[in-house]
Each structure stands twice: as structure tokens, then as C-alpha cells.
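Service request form, structural biology core

Requester: graduate student, group of Dr. S.
Request type: structure prediction, single chain
Budget code: on file
Notes: please return the result as C-alpha cells.

Sequence provided:
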Amino acid sequence: MEQIDVKIGEIGTKVLFETEHVKVWDLTLAPGEATKWHKHQMDYMFVVVKNGKVATEYINGEIENQDDEIGIVDFRKKDIPHRLVNNDNQEYKNIVVEFKATFSED
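Core staff response, request fulfilled:
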């Protein structure tokens, strides 16, 4: 099995905004492009702003195929190594918001 180098902190294309509470990233992927393998140090959410067929690939081999439409919002937990792959023939874009506080399961 190949060794996968998981980075911490290289989440999106660029940081748009940051305070002591949140860090907001732009994530833009060209057709066929993938993010680097990474994991978030903070719980996060994303909002799809340019739709596309993408796949979240997890380090354990699991693949989550998604047909993301503009306006979809999802919440994810930190510390799960993954990468996002744009499987569409058009640019894909979302906005990622990392929360610098941890939320309870309540």
C-alpha cells in the first residue's frame, strides 16, 4: 500500500477571512483536480457555491461520491484524513468555514 502524506492546515485554495473564532477558505477545483490529502484541526462546514460531481476520498479507502448543488451546506468533524476530487467537466467551488471552538454532540 502506498504511503499517503497527510498535511495539516492545507485545506483550501486560499484563506478569505480569519478571526479568533473562525477560519474561512475558498476551495476551487478545476475539472479532474484534487486537493492534497489533509485533515482539519477544527470542526468545519462547507457551502457549495459552484456545483459539481465530486468525491471525498478517505485514507481508509472509502469513497463518498457527491453531486453537490449550489447552496448545499454540510457539517463535518475534525481529524478525519481525506481529499476532495472534482470528477466533473467544470470548475467546482465551495466555501469552507473552520470553527476554532469544538461543538458538543448535543
